[in-house]
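Page 42, continued from yesterday. The earlier attempt failed because a stray header line got pasted into the input along with the sequence. Redoing it now with the clean sequence only.
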Amino acid sequence: MALGIRNLVHLWESAWAAGGGRSADTSDLVGFSEADLRKRYADRKFVPSLDLNHVGPELE
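This time it went through. Structure tokens are written below.
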């Protein structure tokens, strides 16, 4: 779990740097409600969470 967290940190830091970080124009920053985020990113068919008994066919 710790390695996963470190990887996420690197991912977000890289995105922050690529997006200009603190020098980014604040007018480009917008907030999203939880419902808006769910509409954008909650696709249950994308990388489903499966136990070991059911993951095999997904990996083929």
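Notes: The chain has a mean pLDDT of 87.
Reminder to self: strip header lines before submitting.
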